[in-house]
Amino acid sequence: MMQEIILKLRDVEMSFGTKQVLNGINLDVYKGQIIGYIGPNGAGKSTTLKIMLGLIDGYEGNVELFGEDIASGDVTYKRRIGYVPENADLYDNLTACEYITFVGELYGLTRKEAEDKGLQLLTQFEMEDVFHQRISSFSKGMRQKVLIVSSLIHNPDLIFLDEPLSGLDANSVMVIKDILEELKKRGKTIFYSSHMMDVVERISSRIILLVNGKIAADGTFEELKEQNKEGSLEGIFNQLTGFDAHKETAATFVSIVTGKASDQE
Ligand SMILES: Nc1ncnc2c1ncn2[C@@H]1O[C@H](COP(=O)(O)OP(=O)(O)OP(=O)(O)O)[C@@H](O)[C@H]1O
């Protein structure tokens, strides 16, 4: 049986002014895949995510979600999407409860449904005591948990995560990794962008490496390892992005900081 295509990109290009950021992205993502979307800073990962989410316009090419062209004007597909942004402007003056019910209502839940479900979910992160406190009083990790809960409150089929583990402690990272596994088992499709190579290596059913707005590698971790003769995703990343100067760069950087070459210390 053919697997359902959830996400389809054809010749997607994007420029900001004269700078071309995406140079022809072609991609089919199937139901139940966890895609690890990696690449150097500025490669165009967040830009790709924002195009698929309908947050930025002006791209060339074709983007289909759940078999529908997102440029068709019909935005009902958005109800089936969850999104954890990289930099979220959480509404600091709202309480966790107010924020989560606000997002839940945007996605079509009633206030009561969103509030009940939000409290249940935050309780799993041991945050029930702060449900009615203002987000401005939260630590970075607590804010991140509110974002993760908000992104899943409406039971989306396709989930976009942009560096979702930032600020989370080791125990919470474990829980989130297992949540992603569990969502995958239940047929959810996950598009996961991160720089944490060990996590991407572990959770992804497929890894896509973007370099200069182009897909430079696409396959399972095993396939990438086979092709690149490197043992870790970090090593594969270094090799495919042509970066082997970390030691020299670090030494030069610290020499500038200290005003002395390393052998003068
Ligand atoms: N709104 C914008 N206006 C102008 N240039 C932009 C805009 N958004 C992104 N860019 C540029 O597009 C390029 C790709 O940015 P993008 O945020 O997609 O990279 P990224 O792969 O997500 O990087 P990172 O790993 O650092 O998050 C960068 O050169 C960035 O400066």
UniProtKB/TrEMBL annotation:
GO terms for molecular function: ATP binding; ATP hydrolysis activity. InterPro entries: AAA+_ATPase (IPR003593), ABC_transporter-like_ATP-bd (IPR003439), ABC_transporter-like_CS (IPR017871), P-loop_NTPase (IPR027417). Keywords: ATP-binding, Nucleotide-binding. This is ABC-2 type transport system ATP-binding protein. Residues 7-237 form the ABC transporter domain. The keyword Amino-acid biosynthesis does not apply. SUPFAM superfamilies: P-loop containing nucleoside triphosphate hydrolases. It comes from Pseudogracilibacillus auburnensis.
